[in-house]
Amino acid sequence: MYLFTPKSMPTAITVTHKQLQFHFTIYGASHFTMPPNQREIQRQLMKKYNIIFDGPIDSITSPQWPGNCNTIFDHIRRLGRTDYSEYRESISADFTRFPWRHQVQQRAKRITKIAKRCLESRKNESGWRLALESEVMARFSVEIACRNCRGRLWRSEQEVDPTTQTAEEDDPNSLRARQRRRQSCTCKPNGFSRDIPEQGISPLFDDRAEEAIIYSSELRAELPKREHRPDRVFGLQVTERLSRLLNYAEDIRSSPFRLDGDPLVFPFLVIEAKSEKGSDAFTYTQVQTAFAIRELLSIQQELAHVANENEEWDGGPLVWFLSYKGEQWRVFAAYIHTTPDKISYRVVRLWSGGVDSLDGALQLLLIIDYIADWARDIYREGIARSLQRLAPTDSESLRRDDDIFSMAGNIRSWIASNFDRSHDAKDRPMGDSLCKFDCGSGVFRDARFVESQCIGLVITHHNVESFLRTATTDKETRGLISVLLESLERPCLAKGQVLNDLELMWTDTDRNLSEILHPEDVFYVVVVATFYLSPGWKPTRELTYLAVSKKLVQDSIRSPAGPLSSTIQLEKAPMVEDLESFRGLLHMSAEDNLNACLYNFCLRTDKPTRARRSEVNYVWKTLPTVASDDADRELQDRVLRACARPSTRNFVRKLHSIYKIGRNEPDVSFLRVSSTMDQLASP
């Protein structure tokens, strides 16, 4: 138990009450100090959880950070070498182009004066924080666009490099194009003043001061102090657009704090301060903040995992750490380094300096300006793009921040173009240009552009246990197997090579060796082809198939403990030589394809006998089968028959919807999903 007194040195006392002794440790009220033994425990936990402070960046000979951090770190180091005198001389010559430089210079002078005053006054930690932090971090709190002309009131001395964005050079909504179009504010309320008028607070960022970070129960059980309260944490404010996106990601953790009021989501910057007259070294602030940094990185990493981001993701994981003791400041960047056997949370020091000098104050301001620019144009949009993938549709309201002056006005979001180009299975050189005219009153579509989709549910010895884990109880498992058998009604047999060729034919997707089915493995198969108009009015032809390993079924029947032991003997099914008959559906004209979509035309592999009364009696083609000694033609033949309500497709689509998150396709071994955009011949 802890009591707080005005003294800064700890004092141990014992209180006796009714023959019970209570032991207290008293610490100064100015700030909580972790006892030395607890500090050592936390250092050991840092080693256990692979939280590593690597020291200055120029001392690192084998960098392990992601490649997209190279340019960011280089920019920080370049800004950290800025000379105040040279910067001041550039102001007069470039004032009309860079009017904000005068303001930055004045802020640097003001910070230097404040730092010297704090030193002379021997202020404690709270005094330093109240005097300096609002000045240094001002760029995160003010709007940067003029409300009258929407010109820029401020731009970073070194703007973030948009090379990580894969938008085309001629894309007017790419970050590079938007940077080229940015103009300074042209409003001049006072021609004799160089001061830039404030335009209100920034709606993009927010912060929390000394608020407890919530760790997992396992970590809390190990930490000597169950909660950490960083001096300050900056993150994203929930705008209207982010609110809509977060509605589709309710299961994704976005904040490390208790929900109380408007949330601070996906925090990216931590500040920890100490008084210059205190005895604690800089290394103590690292120990104190290590697990808070890890928690923020983990939140970003969880989103990256769900959204299937690669290591070049713009959303991170990247966390900034500002540590200062009096006038001495340090700037760190934290990232995740992953190897096959462990995950490490590494922190590298990019800059250090004293804000009691003009050079140091200016360098720190320029670095903070750069981080704000990164958070605005790279990090925030990377987070939004990942959340956008979790949404079921790609509506215009999810792409734009129309309620924010400095973000409004783009015709189409550069995020959407990046998403389309970066995450398709292959390049799409074509598309329906009429989509850009979509509006609330209606849409136009070119019938020549058709989306071809292939969704396969393939169950083998290797993935059957994973498939059965879709159910959570024994009762649900029995129900899952029952529906599986019903969906395998009237199957044919096909080899793995036939299924590989089928997907290649339908979507032109050639899987790598680790993903293709073994050519000689035999499967019970039902294939369904369906034509329809998507919710976005796109003509769509979808191929859905269910394939269950014949060997798996046979082994399960022989073994009472097998995963499919409750199955009955599947009826005899003929072996088909190929499924090339489906190719004819791909050669229809645009007019015929549109008619098929309007009528929801559907075909499935089936027996040649007359259909049930409730089904359509139309046979399109007969499939080539391997010769058999069985005299029963019904068992030897399989056809493509029209059907109205294919239970097989419903089952496969149901599994697909369970594992699909927004527009992010499932990442499970038993589902094979691919798609492409095709252009058909004109009628």
UniProtKB/TrEMBL annotation:
Residues 225-359 form the DUF7924 domain. Pfam families: DUF7924 (PF25545). It comes from the Eukaryota. Residues 157-201 are annotated as: Disordered. InterPro entries: DUF7924 (IPR057684). This is DUF7924 domain-containing protein.
